[in-house]
Amino acid sequence: MRALKLKREQYSRRRKRSKKAFPVKGEMRLCIFKSTSHIEAQIIDDFNQKTVFSASSKEKEFSKKKLNKVEVAAEVGKSLSKRVKGKKIEKIYFDRNGFRYHGRVKSLADAAREGGLKF
Question: Strand, coil or helix: what is 25?
C-alpha cells in the first residue's frame, strides 16, 4: 500500500514538472500517452486549444507488423514526423506526461527527432 502511494506521488511530481505554465502563440506541445499495450502521440496547439497532428499504435498500419513495443513506439514517432513535415511548425516542446524518459518514450522521441522534428 505504501509503495503504491509513493509511486503515484512520484508520477504526479514528474507530470507537474513536464507541464509548461503558460501557452505561447506559435509554440506546440508534443504530448505522449502510453498504456501497457499502446502508445499515442499528439502535437497540440495550447494557445488555440486544438490537436493539430496525432499518431497512435492503434492505427491499422501498426497492427499488421510483428514488432515489440519499443519498435512500435519508434514507428509511431516516424509516422508523426512524416505528418508534420512541410507544415510551418517552428517550436515544439516535449511533454512526456509524467512518464520516465526511457524505453518506449525515448524510442518515440528519438524517431521523431530523426524524422525532422526539433525539440
Answer: coil
> Measured between alpha carbons, how far is 77 from 13 in angstroms, rounded to an integer?
25
Residue 94 CB neighbours (<10 A): 18
Across 11-32, b (16+ Cβ under 10 Å) vs e yields eeeeeeebeeeeeeeebbbbbb
Checking if the pLDDT of 53 tops 90, the result is yes
The boundaries of the domain holding residue 108 are: 2-114
* Count of domains forming the chain: 1
C-alpha cell recorded at residue 106:
525515448
Residue 46 domain-assigned (yes or no): yes
Indicate which CATH number applies to the domain containing 80.
3.30.420.100
Which pLDDT score is estimated for 20? 66
Kindly report the pTM of this predicted structure: 0.85
Q: Residue 82's Cα: distance from chain center in Å?
A: 15
